[in-house]
Amino acid sequence: MASRTLTGTGATPRSGLGTVVWYDPEITLPDASQAVDEDAEMDRFADAVETARAELESERDATAERVGEDEAAIFDAHIQFLEDPAIADAVEASIDDGKPAALAVDDAFGGHIEQFEGMEGRMAERADDLRDVRDRLLRLLTGGERVNLADLPEGSVVLAERLTPSDTAQLDPETVAGFATVTGGRTSHAAIFARSLALPAVVGLGEDLNDVADGTEVVVDGDAGELLVEPDDAEREAATAAEGADVVEESVETSDGRELEVAANVGRPEELEPAAARGADGVGLYRTEFLFLDRQSPPEEDEQYEAIRDALDTFPDGRVVVRTLDIGGDKQIPYLDLPEEENPFLGERGIRRSLDPDSELFRTQLRALLRAAADGAGALNVMFPLVATVEELEASIDAVDDAAADLEDRGVDYERPSLGVMVETPSAVFMADEFAKRVDFLSIGTNDLTQYVMAADRENERVGHLHDPTHPAVVRAIGQTVEQAHANDAWVGMCGEMAGNPDVTELLVGLGLDELSMSAVTIPDVKVAVGETEYSAARERADSARRVATRSEVHDTIQ
């Protein structure tokens, strides 16, 4: 019998073959007509909150150790929801009206969940966070048993309406072959956890997923965004063969001898060693925001110096590209009192803040970077985010000069690192030649570049079809950036998600990229793809891709 294919959104470029295990935690709510002891219900609610807080703190610590600090931070948000006075007051008011605590919790959370569901992008995903907290409280109040997703049979493929962060953090990639959900998008917490765990996953498959029965054999294709139900022999073999390439520790070159650096995107110190273990030649994007998050005040210069030096020492023979503080947009830091903007992605973010309201923070960070450049083993490169004008770039370079003068006055050893610019806006593409005259390298951030070129919010699933870097406009923007940079003796890297997709590696090689930086999980696959690419042929295909008019024609050209 032929297999059936369900289509959704791929979360991880991995495939897995396994047997369906449906996860459908049921909570039985009490009868609304039963008489209650209001004081006893208040006490039960208070006890449930305390137990839930203890569980969340424990899960946060376990997730930070197993997955990472960024992913673990979601549990901090859950604790905040748990302690939200508006929700607690609503629960207590319902109990005062004679409702059992479980029904009071269900009602109090329900309105907030519905409100977030009506929003778009990441705000809509807050609904899942609230569900997670609500269901945790309901389980404790109703005596329900928690399903242990860490103890599933080997080869299980978990299917669910949705998976919360608490659910996904339990999944063990050593035994679980993948998961698929009815709802969700690429930026959902379940999808983010899946990528961190290198777990095959497809989300947003729709109601048809409910027709797939327990025990059915399926293939989760996180690259194509498909679930193959009852696959045939060829599909089983393909899924097994696509489990991922072996780690390639040495640097790679194309079949006709063109070298290409394959580096890792890193968001916290705990990711450095795993990136090296996956064969990363260096770090193509070291996000420094981790130093500023989850605290009440900004880090001191010495703390930043130590963090950057550790990264350089992890890659003593490689290059570490550090992005200066990039906040605003979807990244908020409470103690900086960021403004509420109608469209924060087009507002005060990145270098715009570093050069104005956060100039002292910027100068402190630059001093730390210059000190680390002198003392660390690897080669430090520093790039500025969201630069749109030559004036911004020149002001950033002046800030580096000022930081060097500060250190000179203090008698502190320093070294001026190589400097670069993130190419994330159409303006940066058009001004690439001028930027390249003033810095050593450009790094293309395809996530934001695609968003701005296509005028499509990358968090809005309704325009998700436009947020594809293989649209001709984006391909042309990449090609133009590379040409202008090379004409002015600057090298060019790419650190957006496009860089980690082996299916477009040949295109990127052909466009002339010198470096590709990605999530560590895809490094082995991209290294293999580079080695299988002939540069001369790739250039011809890339030239053709830059001349066509539609996305389908781009795909036809690069296949």
Describe this entry's structure for a reader.
Helix content is 45%, strand content 14%. By secondary structure, it is α/β, with parallel strands linked by helices. The strands form 2 sheets. Strands 1-8-7-3-4-5-6-2 form an 8-stranded mixed β-sheet. Strands 10-11-12-13-14-15-16-17 form an 8-stranded parallel barrel, surrounded by 6 helices.
Count of DSSP H/I helices:
21
Instruction: Kindly report the average pLDDT value.
Output: 89
Largest sheet: 8 strands, mixed
How many strand units?
A: 17
Identify the quaternary structure here. single chain
Q: Give the termini distance in whole angstroms.
A: 29 Å
Report the radius of gyration as a whole number of Å: 25 Å
Spans where pLDDT lies below 50 across 5 or more residues: none
> Taking strands numbered 1, 2, ... along the chain, how are they ordered across the largest sheet?
1-8-7-3-4-5-6-2
Principal-axes shape call = globular
Beta strand %: 5-15%
SSE class: alpha/beta
Helix content: 40-55%
Output the keywords.
alpha/beta; eight-stranded parallel beta barrel
List the helices and strands and how they pair.
Layout: E1 4-7, E2 9-10, E3 15-22, H1 38-66, H2 69-82, H3 85-96, H4 101-117, H5 122-142, E4 156-160, H6 165-170, E5 176-181, H7 189-197, E6 201-203, E7 217-221, E8 226-229, H8 233-241, E9 252-253, E10 259-266, H9 272-277, E11 283-287, H10 301-314, E12 319-323, H11 351-354, H12 359-375, E13 379-384, H13 390-410, E14 418-423, H14 426-430, H15 432-438, E15 441-444, H16 446-454, H17 472-487, E16 491-494, H18 505-511, E17 515-518, H19 523-531, H20 535-545, H21 551-558
Parallel strand pairs: 3-4, 4-5, 5-6, 10-11, 10-17, 11-12, 12-13, 13-14, 14-15, 15-16, 16-17
Antiparallel strand pairs: 1-8, 2-6, 3-7, 7-8, 9-10
Helix pairs in contact: 1-2, 1-5, 2-5, 3-4, 4-5, 10-12, 12-13, 15-17, 18-20, 20-21
